[in-house]
Automatic annotation (TrEMBL):
One of its GO terms (cellular component) is membrane. InterPro entries: HAMP_dom (IPR003660), HATPase_C_sf (IPR036890), HATPase_dom (IPR003594), His_kinase_dom (IPR005467), HisK_dim/P_dom (IPR003661), HisK_dim/P_sf (IPR036097), Sig_transdc_His_kin-like_C (IPR004358). The keyword Kinase applies. Residues 290-521 form the Histidine kinase domain. Residues 182-234 form the HAMP domain. It catalyses: ATP + protein L-histidine = ADP + protein N-phospho-L-histidine. Its EC number is 2.7.13.3. Its main location: membrane. This is histidine kinase. Keywords: Kinase, Membrane, Phosphoprotein, Transferase, Transmembrane, Transmembrane helix.
Length: 537
C-alpha cells in the first residue's frame, strides 16, 4: 500500500509546494522531512523493542524452567509434594508464571500443579524440561508463562518513545525555522524587492549585500546584471533611433516587394490549376472513351437482336394477314420473341449497369460531394470504368476489399487518388512491359481504414523516392508525364481526406503505397474543401 500511494502523495506535495511561499515551503519541507524520518525510524525502533523484549522473556522462561527442573529433582525422587510446592514458590513468585505442572515418569502421573492462568489474559507459551536424579530421568516439568505483562511493557515503551520523538521533532522544527528565517528567508525577501526594482526599470540604485555566502554571491550577480542592463538599455535606445530611420525607408520597399510576390504567387497558382484541369480532362476523356467502348458491345448486340426480331415480326405479320398461320409457325415466333426479349433485357441491363456506374462516379468526381458509401462498392464502380482501358493492356488489377467498411467521406477525390496510382503504375511502373500486377487491399484499424496499393513493376529508385510528391517532378517529362499525378494524390489524401500516405519501393521490386484514412473525414472549412476544379478526374 505504501508503494502504491507514495508517488501520488509526492506529486500532491510538489503541487502544494509550487503554489506556496518560500517560508511555507521550507516549513513544509522541514516538517515532512522530519516526519518522514520518524515514520521510517519509529517502526524500526518499535520492532527492535518488541524483538528484544520477546528475546528477554524467552531467556527468562528457559532459565526459570531449568531452575524449576533442578529444584524439583529431590522432592520428586523423595515423593514429597509439600516440599516440591514450597521449593516452587521461588519460581512461582514471578507474576508472569501462569502454571507449573510436574509429572513423574514413567507412569506420567501428575505430581504437582500450581496455576493462576484464569487471572491472566495471555497469550501463553509453554516450555517442557526433563527432571533428572543421578543422570536418570524421573519426570518432566511444564512451565507456562503469560505475555500480558510483556505487552504492557512494550506499550509503555512505545508511548515513552513517541512522546520523546514528538518533543524532539517540535524542538528541531523550531530551531531550524529560526535559523532559516534569519539566514535565508529575510535575505531572499530583500532580493525579491531588488528584483522588482530591476523589472520596473529602476537601474540607478546599486544592489549591496555585505555577505560572503551564496546570498551575497547572488546579490553580486544581480548587481552585475543591473549594470549590464543599464548599458544595454542605453545602447538599445541608440539602435532604436537608427532603426526608426531605417524602417521609414524599408516600409515602402517591403510593400513593393510584397505586391510583386503576391502577383507571382497568383500566377503560379493559376498555372498549377490550369495544368491540373488539363490532366483531369485528359483522364476524364480516357474514361469516357473506355465506357463508350464497353457500351458499344451490349448496345450492338441489342441492335442485332432487335433487327432479327423485326424481321421475324414482319414475316409473322405477313403470314397472319393471309391467314396462313400454323401452330408450328406461331410457336416458332413466340420462341424467337421470348429469346429476343431475354437477350435485349440482358444487353440493356448490362448497358444500364455501366451507365449507372459511370453516372455515380461522374457525379462524385464532378461535384466532390461528401456522402456515406460502402468502400467495396465504390471501388468496384471505379474499376468498372477503368477496366476498358486496362483491358487493352497486359496488366491485371485485383481488388481485395471487404464489404463491411462504411465511410463518410469524399468518394470523388478518393477515386482520383487510386486512378492516379493506377495510371502511375501503368505509365511509369511497368513502362510498356508485357506483364504486370496491381492490387488494392483495405482493412479496418480502429476508427481508420488502411488501404494498400502495390504493383510488381520496376519500382522507384531510392534517390528520387523522397521527391515523388513534388509538383512537376517526373522522369518522363515530354513523354506524357506532367509531374502532377502524385502531387495531387498527396494533397488529396492529406488535405481533403484527412489521412496519411507513405510510399516504399526498391529498384526492380515494385512499389507500395499505404494510405491511412479516417472512416469519418474531419469537417473542413470552406477554404480547404475539395473543389471540382482541383480534384475531379
Amino acid at each position: 500500500m505504501l508503494k502504491k500511494n507514495a508517488f501520488p502523495f509526492y506529486f500532491r506535495l510538489a503541487f502544494f509546494l509550487r503554489g506556496t511561499s518560500l517560508r511555507s515551503a521550507i516549513i513544509a519541507a522541514v516538517f515532512f522531512g522530519l516526519i518522514g524520518s520518524a515514520i521510517i525510524l519509529i517502526p524500526y525502533n518499535i520492532s527492535s523493542i518488541d524483538t528484544n523484549a520477546h528475546k528477554r522473556q524467552l531467556e527468562d522462561h528457559q532459565r526459570l524452567t531449568n531452575i524449576l527442573a533442578v529444584i524439583q529433582s529431590e522432592p520428586l525422587w523423595q515423593i514429597t509434594p509439600d516440599i516440591a510446592r514450597i521449593s516452587s514458590d521461588v519460581v512461582y513468585s514471578d507474576p508472569r508464571i501462569a502454571t507449573i505442572d510436574v509429572f513423574s515418569l514413567p507412569d506420567h502421573k501428575k505430581f504437582l500443579t500450581l496455576s493462576r492462568k484464569e487471572q491472566q489474559k495471555g497469550p501463553f507459551s509453554t516450555i517442557v524440561h526433563t527432571i533428572k536424579h543421578d543422570e536418570k530421568v524421573i519426570g518432566i516439568v511444564e512451565l507456562t508463562m503469560a505475555d500480558d505483562l510483556l505487552i504492557e511493557e512494550e506499550r509503555t515503551a512505545f508511548i515513552r518513545y513517541a512522546i520523546t520523538a514528538i518533543f524532539s521533532l517540535i524542538i528541531a522544527v523550531i530551531l531550524i525555522l529560526l535559523v532559516l528565517q534569519q539566514r535565508l528567508v529575510v535575505p531572499i525577501r530583500r532580493l525579491m524587492k531588488e528584483s522588482e526594482r530591476l523589472s520596473n526599470g529602476e537601474l540607478t540604485n546599486p544592489i549591496v549585500f555585505n555577505r560572503s555566502d551564496e546570498i551575497g554571491h547572488l546579490a553580486d550577480t544581480m548587481e552585475a546584471t543591473r549594470q549590464a542592463l543599464a548599458r544595454t538599455f542605453s545602447e538599445l535606445e541608440i539602435k532604436n533611433n537608427q532603426l526608426t530611420d531605417y524602417s521609414n525607408t524599408l516600409e515602402s520597399k517591403v510593400k513593393l516587394r510584397t505586391s510583386e510576390l503576391e502577383t507571382a504567387l497568383k500566377n503560379i497558382n493559376h498555372v498549377h490549376q490550369e495544368l491540373t484541369r488539363i490532366e483531369r480532362m485528359a483522364s476524364l476523356g480516357s474514361m469516357v472513351a473506355g465506357v463508350a467502348h464497353e457500351l458499344n458491345t451490349p448496345i450492338g448486340n441489342c441492335l442485332l437482336v432487335a433487327s432479327t426480331l423485326e424481321a421475324e415480326v414482319l414475316k409473322f405479320t405477313e403470314l397472319f394477314t393471309v391467314g396462313n398461320v400454323r401452330r408450328s409457325e406461331l410457336d416458332k415466333f413466340m420462341q424467337c420473341a421470348n429469346e429476343s426479349s431475354t437477350l435485349l433485357l440482358r444487353g440493356l441491363h448490362q448497358a444500364a449497369h455501366l451507365v449507372g456506374d459511370f453516372k455515380q462516379v461522374a457525379v462524385d468526381q464532378s461535384s466532390a460531394q461528401r456522402r456515406q458509401f460502402d468502400l467495396h462498392t465504390m471501388m468496384i464502380e471505379l474499376t468498372s470504368l477503368l477496366m476498358p482501358g486496362l483491358s487493352k493492356t497486359p496488366y491485371i488489377l485485383i481488388i481485395d476489399i471487404p464489404t463491411n467498411i462504411e465511410m463518410d467521406s469524399f468518394p470523388g477525390p478518393l477515386g482520383q487518388v487510386f486512378t492516379n496510382l493506377i495510371t502511375n503504375s501503368v505509365t511509369h511502373g511497368f513502362n510498356e512491359r508485357d506483364y504486370g500486377n496491381m492490387r488494392i487491399t483495405a482493412e479496418l484499424v480502429g476508427h481508420n481504414v488502411k488501404m494498400t496499393f502495390t504493383d510488381d513493376g520496376y519500382g522507384i529508385p531510392p534517390e528520387i523516392l523522397h521527391r515523388i510528391y513534388e509538383p512537376f517532378f517526373t522522369t518522363r517529362f515530354g513523354r506524357g508525364g506532367s509531374g502532377l499525378g502524385l502531387s495531387i494524390t498527396y494533397n488529396i489524401v492529406t488535405n481533403v481526406l484527412g489521412g496519411e500516405i507513405l510510399a516504399t519501393s526498391a529498384q526492380n521490386q515494385g512499389c507500395k503505397f499505404v494510405i491511412t484514412l479516417p472512416l469519418v473525414t474531419p469537417i473542413m472549412d470552406e477554404a480547404n474543401a475539395p473543389s471540382t476544379l482541383n480534384f475531379a478526374i
